[in-house]
Amino acid sequence: MTEKRTEISELGEFGLINRINSNIQLKNKSTIKGIGDDAAVIDAGYDYVLVSTDLLAEGIHFDLAFTPLQHLGHKAVSVNVSDIAAMNGRAEQVVISLALSNRFSVEAVDALYEGINAACEQYKVDLVGGDTSASHSGLVISVTVIGRVPKNKIVYRSGAKPNDIICVTGDLGASYIGLQILEREKQVYLSNPKMQPSLEKYEYLVGRQLKPIARTDIVYELDELGILPTSMIDVSDGLASDLFHIGEQSKIGSRIFEDKIPIDQAAYETSALEFKIDPVTCALNGGEDYELLFTIRQEDFEKIKNHPDIHMIGYVLEKPGEHFLVSKQGTPVRLQAQGWNHFRT
Ligand code: ADP
Ligand code: MG
Fold it and tell me: What is the 34 CA–ligand 1 centroid distance (Å)?
């Protein structure tokens, strides 16, 4: 008898997570939210405690040919803090585990922790533990972040309602273009090691890829403005994919407008001219922007309309699963969520 074998690529990352989740029953009253949002939610009496974890594997999530270890350490913390921000919470502690092959020296670990410590300083987070192991295949970094949010301020992916306004912070797509530039320069260098990459021109784009910043400032500002988003997620997989996540959890659809999607000028020009990719596609399907995507009630429009870094890109529709992008010409096109999927490369 042959045992059934299913390739993970057949399910994909999200299919696999759903399969794991389908066999889990929560047992503790203190577990408010398990799998399925940016962070798990635990009842801690007065507040909710938030927990999120991310694993970064060499060759999958980062390439040390063009990623300085300091930046990598900083990014590993930032992407976790971003998940806490996406729940409208504040990160307070991180736990970091490493698996290291013998390619790495003490000085390399020092450089990694230089970045980790700088990020902990920046976000006012304490590094409180971790684990260290040997590895046969490069560097693996696992970061777990613990945060906190008052119970009446928590924001899930699931609260969006029809007619809510869809907002996104900062700009989208630049991180993906930054990665394309780094990959291109690596190939140039490999074919001719005398060629030094010239990256000054692309400082912003490359910076967005190598050293993203979690939007903790927005969590603070929304609170100041007296706005509690109805739903929120951080843009790690691309606008389309993350909009789908909100859609699935909130059981709604959406209509967003192409000309409202914030795209940085350099990202716009570089993607179109040098890579012949549509910059809007980069924003929709690129990922790793770590901006916040959220929905607000119509009545909060006035409070937010002049904010320079929050862009209203569309609104929530009643019909679940129906997501439309209205082109610059006014034609609605059904959105496809491609996003990052490491099992489908
Ligand atoms: P994000 O992009 O915000 O980091 P993910 O897409 O990685 O979120 O994860 C989605 C949800 O699935 C989260 O609730 C996460 O904790 C959960 N999850 C991911 N991988 C696993 C796993 N191997 N076992 C259990 N839960 C998982
Ligand atoms: Mg997230």
Answer: 10
CATH classification of the domain holding 276: 3.90.650.10
Best of 17, 32, 155, 241 for a ligand 1 pocket test (most atoms within 8 Å of beta carbon): 17
Q: pLDDT of the chain along its 345 residues, tens only?
A: 678 899 999 999 889 999 999 999 999 999 999 999 999 999 999 999 999 999 999 999 999 999 999 999 999 999 999 999 999 999 999 999 999 999 999 999 999 999 999 999 999 999 999 999 999 989 999 999 999 999 999 999 999 999 999 999 999 999 999 999 999 999 988 888 887 777 888 999 999 999 999 999 999 999 999 999 999 999 999 999 999 999 999 999 999 999 999 999 999 999 999 999 999 999 999 999 999 999 999 999 999 999 999 999 999 999 999 999 999 999 999 997 665 455 543
Q: Which residues line ligand 1 (CB under 6 A)?
A: 17, 20, 35-38, 54, 83, 236
This prediction's pTM = 0.94
Show the domain range for 41. Answer: 31-153
Do 42 and 66 belong to one domain? yes
Distance from the alpha carbon of residue 236 to the mean position of ligand 2, in angstroms? 6
3-state secondary structure the chain: CCCCCCCHHHHHHHHHHHHHHHCCCCCCCCEEECCCCCCEEEEECCEEEEEEEEEEEECCCECCCCCCHHHHHHHHHHHHHHHHHCCCCEEEEEEEEEEECCCCCHHHHHHHHHHHHHHHHHHCCEEEEEEEEECCCCCEEEEEEEEEEEHHHCCCCCCCCCCCEEEEECCCCHHHHHHHHHHHHHHHHHHCCCCCCCCHHHHHHHHHHHCCCCCHHHHHHHHHCCCCCCEEEECCCCHHHHHHHHHHHHCCEEEEEHHHCCCCHHHHHHHHHHCCCCHHHHHHHCCCCCCEEEEECHHHHHHHCCCCCEEEEEEEECCCCCEEEECCCCCEEECCCCCCCHHHC
